[in-house]
Structure formats: structure tokens, C-alpha cells
Design goal:
- The chain is of the alpha/beta class.
- The chain has 10 helices and 12 strands.
- The strands form 4 sheets. Strands 2-1-3-4-5-10 form a 6-stranded parallel sheet, with helices on both faces. The chain has a two-stranded parallel ribbon with strand order 6-9.
- The structure holds NADP nicotinamide-adenine-dinucleotide phosphate and guanosine-5'-diphosphate-beta-L-fucopyranose.
- NADP nicotinamide-adenine-dinucleotide phosphate binds next to helix 1 and strand 6.
Length: 313
Amino acid sequence: NIIMKILVTGGSGLVGNAIKTISSKYNYDYIFLSSKDCDLTNYEDTYICFQQHNPDYVIHLAAYVGGLYKNMNHKVDMLEKNVQLNLNVLKACHELKVKKVICYLSTCIFPDKITYPINENMLHNGAPHNSNNAYAYAKRLLETHCRAYQEQYNDNFICIIPTNIYGPNDNYSLTDGHVIPALINRCYLNKKNGEKFTVKGSGRPLRQFIYSEDLAVLTMWVLEKYNEKDPIILSVSEKDEVSIEYVARQIAKSYDYENMIEFDTTSSDGQYKKTADNSKLINLYNEYKFINIDEGIEKSVEWFINNYESCRK
Ligand code: NAP
Ligand code: GFB
């Protein structure tokens, strides 16, 4: 019997590596692309690369990604690079008749002024939070673009909406990284230099964090079992929502450095919360057990320390 081929864009990133880690459990041929294989902001390169591999399925992870502060300071790149690479990938997938394409949105692109918990139908019901509106509109355009291909050509291009993701192989940059990887790197350095462990903002904002390998398993479930056209939120439950302070303290505990924590309230908190409703997922895939945040942070800190020299920071 034929083995189907999955092409993963953004295969060298946080989620791409998580899919690589679980890939042996699923019987497919995989191609994991990084920007060295082809620059997806260039259509010709993208078409040639996709034509050469001729995949049955595409898991489209590639994006110009960053935490709150990268989003606030690099809005032009966030908009231009993401619009360019998303447009190129969908166009190439259509031209090459890819059977199913999974695209990634984010719970941070939902409207800022909204009722909670947020569900999949609220995506376009208002402006996103200003801190990352450039990225948010690029991602909302991706969702609109997928639906256009569904309506005009009946293409099976769908979107999933992950909440904040963390885990091994993240981008640990102190300035551009998301909160968990940035604080894992920061606490390591602060402890090494005997400095206070400085957490940006008040620590009050609330987030739902999903471990990258949980998202990888759910991505394969969406590929094989989710056959609807509408987006689906992939997140831990509302009850698993934690404060930034909680996460910072857990990270400090992993380094046995909790007594040195301090909060720099001159830095922006960003969105206070973006509580997502995962009931659509739970109704369809109800026995899924997510990795607990404390365990996930432990594993992420351990991976960072063991891969300090080679990791992205
Ligand atoms: P990541 O770790 O930053 O990895 C980004 C990937 O995209 C890398 O493999 C990178 O390749 C590739 N890439 C970037 N620009 C490219 C270009 N011009 N051409 C080709 N490849 C390019 O991202 P992630 O955290 O895994 O995120 C995966 C997806 O989930 C993204 O669509 C993101 O928007 C979404 N998401 C992420 C989060 C989160 O908290 N991380 C939350 C919600 C949604 P190189 O390694 O060569 O740079
Ligand atoms: O992961 P993060 O940057 O993204 O989290 P968002 C920001 C929250 O963590 C804010 C606090 O409340 C920050 O005050 N924080 C504390 C820190 N210390 C740090 C630090 O050293 N670095 C960072 N980054 N935060 C993002 C969106 O929003 O959500 C992106 O801007 C992306 O587009 C991501 O989609 C999933 O959750 O605030």
C-alpha cells in the first residue's frame, strides 16, 4: 500500500520539532522544511520546492513568530513576511492539488473586546489587541484565504487555532521569544550572574499554555480525523489557565531560584487574557489528556540546560 507524503513547512521550529519527535508513530513519508530549504516569501522558490516533493498533505507551520515585545516592535515584518509566505504556500498547494492543508492561527488574534470564553465563531468580531494587530491581521487573512479556496475550488485547506505553545526547541531569545522560553533563558543567566530574576510586567495576565508535543499529537488527529471546514481551537481547558506570575515562579523553582524573583512593572503586560473555549475539541476527541504545566516547564528547562549551546536564543 502507498505511503502518503506530508510536507511540514516550519519543520525546524518549536512545533515542527515536536511533530518530528512523534512522527515515527504515524505511517507517512515526512519532509521537514526550514528556511534553508526554501524561502517561502519567494513564490518561485516555494512552487519549485513543493513541486519537487509533490506532497499529499501540507502542515503549514512556517511563520515569522515572536512574543509580545517582538510583535510590538516589528509590526511591518510581522505583516509583510507572514502575508507573503502564507499567500505563496496556499497558492502552491492549490496549483499542485495538495489533498489537505492545515494552517496555524493563534488565540492571540481574536478580538480584544470580546466575551469569554472565546470560541471559533468569534474570530472576526472586532479588532485584535493593538500589541500584535499586524500579526493578527496577517493570520486572519490566512483564514479568509483558506475559506476562499474552499468556496471557489472546494480545496481542503483548514485552520487550527492553538493557544500559547511551549516546549523543547523553542526560540529562547530574551527580546523576541515568548514568555516561557524567554524566562527560561533569563533565569538561567540571572542565576549564573547572581542577579535578581526579572519578569517583565505585573505577572497578572492569564494564559492557557499547550505543550508542543500535545499540539503535535492533536495536529495528527486533525490531519486524520477532523473533516470539518471550520477552524478548531486546540488548547487546554479554561480551568488550566494560569497567571504569568505562576509560570515565572515555576520556572524559578526549576532553577531553585524562586527567592530572587522580581517584577518589572514598567514593561507592558500585553493582553490581560484571551481565555479560549476548547469544548469543540473535547467533544470530538474527549479522552485527550494534556501534559500538566508544571511537568511541561520542568521538561522544557531540562531540555534548555542540556541544549544550551545549540538552541535558538
Ligand atoms: P518557530 O519556532 O518560530 O518556527 C518558525 C518556523 O518557520 C521555522 O522553522 C522557520 O525556519 C520557518 N520560517 C520562518 N520564516 C520562513 C521563511 N521565510 N521561509 C521558510 N521558512 C520560514 O514557530 P512555532 O512557534 O513552531 O510556530 C509554528 C506555528 O504556530 C506558526 O504558524 C505560529 O504562528 C503558530 N503559533 C505559535 C504559537 C507559539 O506560542 N509559539 C502560538 C500560536 C500559534 P528557520 O528555522 O529556518 O528560521
Ligand atoms: O508569550 P508572550 O510574549 O505572548 O507573553 P502573549 C507575554 C506576557 O508574558 C506578558 C509577560 O504579560 C509579559 O508581560 N512576560 C514576562 C514576558 N516576562 C517576559 C519576557 O521576558 N518575555 C515575554 N515575551 N513576555 C503573543 C502574541 O502574546 O501570543 C504573539 O504577541 C503570539 O503574536 C503569542 O501569537 C502566542 O501571549 O502576550
